[in-house]
Amino acid sequence: MSQIDRLRLPDDDPTFGGNRIFDLFQYSPAVTANGMVFIAGQIGLRADGTIPESPSEQADLAFQRIQSILAHLGLDFTDLVELVTYHVDVGADLKDFRAVKEKYIRSDFPAWTILGVAALARPELAIEIKAVAATRAR
After folding, report:
1. Which of 2, 104, 114, 132 could form a disulfide with 82 if both were Cys (CB 3.0 to 4.6 A apart)?
2. Could you tell me the strand order of the sheet in which 4-6 lies?
3. Span 4-134: which CATH code?
């Protein structure tokens, strides 16, 4: 039988501003099971709930959110094993997205799937990033 742990963020988390959005939509930012961490899709949302217009800034915020989740679990980007990115305009945004991605993921590259989508949860969103990481042996 596996141990399943659901991440609950501190209420004063500077990246997320707490758990309000997770409670509202009834999901966890990350779930750990069988040595794997499944990180819910992260968007370019600021802690105050606003979304920047620039897809590059949205990508940067989404990576910051993933970085924060990983840090809460004692992990970092080298622990990622899979990355799935969703792009409303993959053709126009991929070059800038890659430049942002390279700021965060510099080595130990995860598997990466790039998907073009018609829309995301809010009309102003341009990208979403889902990730899977492996926990470290303790």
Report:
1. 132
2. 4-6, 30-33, 36-43, 127-134, 80-87, 111-116
3. 3.30.1330.40
